[in-house]
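Hi R.,

Here's the chain you asked about this morning:
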Amino acid sequence: MRTFGSLLVRGLIVGLFAGLLAGTFAYVLGEPRVDAAIAIEEAGSHAHTHDHGDSTEPAAAEEEEPLVSRDGQRAGLFLATSLYGVALGGLFAVAFTLLRRKLRTGNDAYAALGLAAAGFVGVVLVPFLKYPPNPPAVGDPDTITKRTVTYLLTLVIGLLAVWAGVALSRWAARYGEVARLAGGVVGLVVTVVAAYLILPRINEVPETFPATLLWQFRFASLGTQATLWLLLGFGYAVAVDRRPSRSKVAAA
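And here is the predicted structure, written out as tokens:
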């Protein structure tokens, strides 16, 4: 019987490696889109300054130096994804410990994979479909509080939707496997659709912003999260797998 400390250490280590690899994904596919979005923002700022003239608004004509340079931001990307991966790995280990007995499978690896899939749907996919992320050049600074609150609310709803799907799936299991699968899908979808209809619609993307760049950034962001959760699920599944290795079986 593994102790909680052992499971937690495994989660932290797996989360660290998953965060590093997710950061690599974000660096390769996400950072070029961020640079392109910043270039568009800077071009628009220069055009606005030129239209108003330097003499009338001298303060606005001066470019504000960012608090952190782009090189610093790129380096900080790996630090951020690593810390996020470690924190997520720790939370994943805690959730695995608390929910393991309620997961109806005798295999720890399958339990870890199922928990990772449910976490990705509730924590990432449901909020993404309602409020997809925007690059730096998109968004009104005055609405950042509203956008943060609605996103966190959507995250909570995503977890509730997963719980509703699991609960309805188990209730419908008495009528067969098809009913169990249909019940899980219905419980998840109905909860998500009801929440989407209630939550406010937020769209601050300018009409002049390139749609291709926008969706490339969004899919890069989704891919980063998918990489993190995929590696976390498979890595933790390997870490907690109780099946004997082939070498031990052959030796026996």
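One quick note: The two ends are 22 Å apart (CA to CA).

Cheers,
M.
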